[in-house]
Amino acid sequence: MRQGAPVRSQGPPGHGTIADLSFPGRRASSLPALDVAPASVPEGFRRREPPALPEVAERDLVRHYTALSQQNYGVDTGVYPLGSCSMKYNPKVAEQIAALPGFQRVHPLQPEATVQGTLELLWRLERAICAITGMARATLQPPAGACGELTGLLLMRAHHAERGEQRRKVLIPEAAHGTNPASVRLGGYEAVTVPADDRGLVDVRALERLVDDDVAGLMLTNPNTLGLFEEDIERICAIVHGVGGLVYYDGANLNAILGKARPGDMGFDIVHVNTHKTFATPHGGGGPGAGPVGVVEALVPYLPVPRVERVEPDGPYVLAHDAPRSIGRMHGFHGNVGVLVRAWTYLAAHGADGLPEVAERAVLNANYLAARISAAFPLAYPATRPMHEFVATARGLKAATGVRAADVAKRLIDLGYHPSTVYFPLVVEEALMVEPTETETRETLDALAEAFLQVAEEARRDPERLHEAPLTTPVRRLDEARAARQLVLRWPAGKARRSEVKVT
Amino acid sequence: MEFPDDLRYTKEHEWARRENGRVRVGITDYAQDALGDVVYVDLPEVGARVRANEPLGEVESTKSVSDVYSPITGTILERNAALEDRPELVNAQPYGDGWLVVIQPDDPSELDGLLDAGGYRAFVEAGGQEG
Prior knowledge:
The complex is a heterodimer. By secondary structure, chain A is α/β, with parallel strands linked by helices.
């Protein structure tokens, strides 16, 4: 069996933090002798003793952090099937383009005439996003998907306010991403849950009962959070439009329909895209990100400013601020432009003819993997074919062996794989949410499937062992309950080792 | 899995116990097992008004945050302060020291509309979900 990339513990054992390597007098750099007059720091601001910084040689510093980095797992080391997150491989061509001096060495306050290339890229990216989503115009400002959601809700509010309406409710399906209800609250609305039917899709009859003229809109992903295409989407949009509400497309799952179907054609009014999901920009450690938001013609006046415009067909690109009905800024300057450069590069590299293949392969890979592991981990909603990701359940395994989804995930780490998402969406018991993405080969998918099946087999043979997984990692199973009940939010200063850490 | 006979149950997996005109409320054994390790419990203040079938607080586990629905309309008389430091009581003793609140009901007979132990057991054995 082919293995994934194992998580190794390298370097000298027993070293907790860089502080543990500290030795008095060691330095990573030698400063030249002071050749200017020392500045005098006022007495009241002077430290009484030096800060407790680790004293290490450059060699120790490099080895320590290199050893830590080798314990990392990422899309560059192996398959990362974290459902609902679209952990795509990030093509290196995007890094090369983003590193070009023309994009990297510019300042947002430069005169427009000197940054025409960057403005043209933003202009082209906006048009590409509109072409893909079926929207009229878009803002590139929101620095993340959740900020895109808030932007969308503020646009919704502006739309209703201009009609003199104070609507209070926003509908969200019960399987929605956690950010949706949070954004609804932040946008000043009350979240109302729409139940799913036995297909795992929006219960249209329930929706009909829930809508009234207090509903500002509906937020939906399609395919939905179970990875299933909302077949009744046109009917759903018509119901919400029927009471004067707007329909918001959460772009979390756009990958499944890229170049195949457009939210605008389904009836959506507002769309956000996550460039770190659909357009393969790096997820990073929480940022920087980008969550562009597109809207239909009627909502264009409310979009944030400034907007990149072109005065005449072949004329220069300019930043237009004049939009009196705009909701204002959602971010400083023009959003995270470095990320937007990568997103445009991804789109340009694929081209209009390549993007549909992205969706096809993403859907094919997910369905292949779902079929390969279904004997051990059946689909939660087998009646509806999944799209780019699928939700399986370990419910049967738990009943038979006591092994839960969390145990399966931990054991996958031992076998060299990043686990799938577990326990989400909440509506599925013992959920395993798997999204292999389009770039993985059949060999990788087969190996991952074998790993899932091996875990199921081990669960029948030796369930106790699985409760203890992972067995091979630098840190064994973490006590999540204790970590949440007894928060320790900082590493104690000084020389404390792990065994000495006390809850304070 | 326990289904004490002296309790009434909701389909959202809360239990309610009559105590001299008052109603003590918690989540069921089934609920705590499904949630996994409870790490935080968010309860209403004493004096707060709660309505039947509407959220009165939240139970957070290592897996999820779940609303707790009030089984009855009334006013909060007591909240279980012990859960602040020991939320694990909800797992260890869901029908005992892991109780959540005591409610002064507007209409005690409202409890008669809830499931009895047999009805709740059947509901759980059928999958424990509405619809």
